[in-house]
Amino acid sequence: MTELTDLFTVPALDQGLRAPLRQALDGKAKPVGALGRIEDLALTLGLIQQTLRPAVVRPVLLVFAGDHGLTRSGVAAYPAGVTVAMVDTLLMGRASANAFAKVVGAQVQVIDAGVAADLSDRAGLVHAKVAPGTKDASTEPAMTPDQAQAALLEGAAMVRAAIDDGADMIALGEMGIGNSASAALLMHRLAPAPLIDCVGQGAGHSPEGMARKQAVLAQAAARSDATAPLEVLTQFGGFEIAMMAGALLGAARAGVPVIVDGFIGSAAALLAIRLAPNARDYCIFAHASAEAGHRRMLEAVEAQPLLGLDMRLGEGTGALLAVPLLKAACALLSDVAELKDILEAAR
Ligand SMILES: O=C(O)c1ccc[n+]([C@@H]2O[C@H](COP(=O)([O-])O)[C@@H](O)[C@H]2O)c1
Ligand SMILES: Cc1cc2nc[nH]c2cc1C
């Protein structure tokens, strides 16, 4: 329990380097402010890493996988078995996330946070299963309070191991059929926002499928009036979302920047921020997902995403595409000449 209290204690970001970083950016060989939000990104990274020379050399993507009991009530169009099939694809290096990771030079780790199938024989998989999937949140709590806490702590342990191995940037991804339904319920209670504004297509839905998803989620929401973050997580799931939130808090506590992916990743970030508001300052929101509700969720955490590519895949694919922007922001501070030298040469 003490460990959990520790996890929720994220120190406020030290703002001491803000002025020197601004000055360094203004002093680079370019018109003041001409690199727009890349300059803001450089400043953010400098503050998080507490240096005038931030670096993103070893980015690591953690992909948390989990199954959702809500799928038994028909919230997802794709079969629940796709979760384990995609875990295997990720382990084989053949998922979109692997392809993008290769392009941007990131390492990928796949974590069983709560997949229903027994995956103990899978080589290369990080085994952190809290339970074989959540319960159906439309009829009962998704998990027990103990399981919620265990998942948060596992996520933090996972990120600590990655940082000990040299990771200087953590990207968070997920795989879990049905998890856009859990994420919608979390957003509904934690943003907060009307449920109807939180429910989107997920991986895809027919109009009838959407109507069923909305009805099932209304039933889930009617079952519990929870608004406290830990209780909301316990009621609505899921294990991979809990683990992402724990990982985010662990990274923030270690002063390591976190790239948040799409709708489900942002729900995990929202949960982490409601548990420890200072965690917000360690997050970089990669992209605006095409999932309805994501824009509003981003507003709830006062985030302006870097990219808008109409993506809604998950796996951390959007987070990975933001990595080159982060590297460019670092290179601006480390590699670019000084404006004063340019002006002198121009005299
Ligand atoms: O990241 C997003 O914005 C996003 C939006 C919609 C769906 N997804 C992915 O699709 C799955 C969830 O969709 P669903 O319909 O099964 O709830 C899950 O594996 C997510 O990674 C991801
Ligand atoms: C094939 C497939 C791959 C995914 N990756 C993340 N969510 C997904 C959902 C589906 C259906």
Automatic annotation (TrEMBL):
Record CDD domains: DMB-PRT_CobT (cd02439)
Enzyme Commission no: 2.4.2.21
Source taxon at top rank: Bacteria
Keyword Cytoplasm: no
Enzyme class at the top of the EC tree: transferase
GO molecular function terms attached to this record: nicotinate-nucleotide-dimethylbenzimidazole phosphoribosyltransferase activity
Family: Belongs to the CobT family.
Function recorded in the entry: Catalyzes the synthesis of alpha-ribazole-5'-phosphate from nicotinate mononucleotide (NAMN) and 5,6-dimethylbenzimidazole (DMB).
Name this protein carries in UniProt: Nicotinate-nucleotide--dimethylbenzimidazole phosphoribosyltransferase
Gene that this polypeptide is encoded by: cobT
